[in-house]
Amino acid sequence: MDIIQVGDLTFQLDYSKPLYEQIINQFRFDIAQGHIQLGTRTLSVRDLAKVLKVNPNTVMRAYQELERDNLFETRRGHGTFVTSSQKKVDELQRSLATQAVSNFVTSIKSIGFTKDSAITLIEEAEWN
């Protein structure tokens, strides 16, 4: 696994998994966590590919997927930008949280916890 710093972002690339999915997920989490400001211009496909040492087609595929999700927007002649829509970010956060809860419920059920036991466990957890 390679850890690559790109400005304020840190990419952890595992070459045994699809790289474009990892790039997508990294951007999604960074946008959701506020590590990337809304409306910020991203690196060009070529520049990010060069820094990450991946094929430009890999980055292009990730950017296209993020654009389909309305998290990126391409402005002809100006580059690619992170969405400026807080509503889209709120939807992304909700989606990521729903996925995390679903994974948690599946795991906790597999080790025999009931819903009430899981709720108690969550309430006892530290949120700091």
Automatic annotation (TrEMBL):
SUPFAM superfamilies: Winged helix' DNA-binding domain (SSF46785). One of its GO terms (molecular function) is DNA-binding transcription factor activity. Keywords: DNA-binding, Transcription, Transcription regulation. Residues 17-85 form the HTH gntR-type domain. The keyword Transcription applies. The keyword Transcription regulation applies. It comes from the Bacteria. PANTHER family: HTH-TYPE TRANSCRIPTIONAL REPRESSOR YTRA. This is GntR family transcriptional regulator. It comes from Paenibacillus uliginis N3/975.
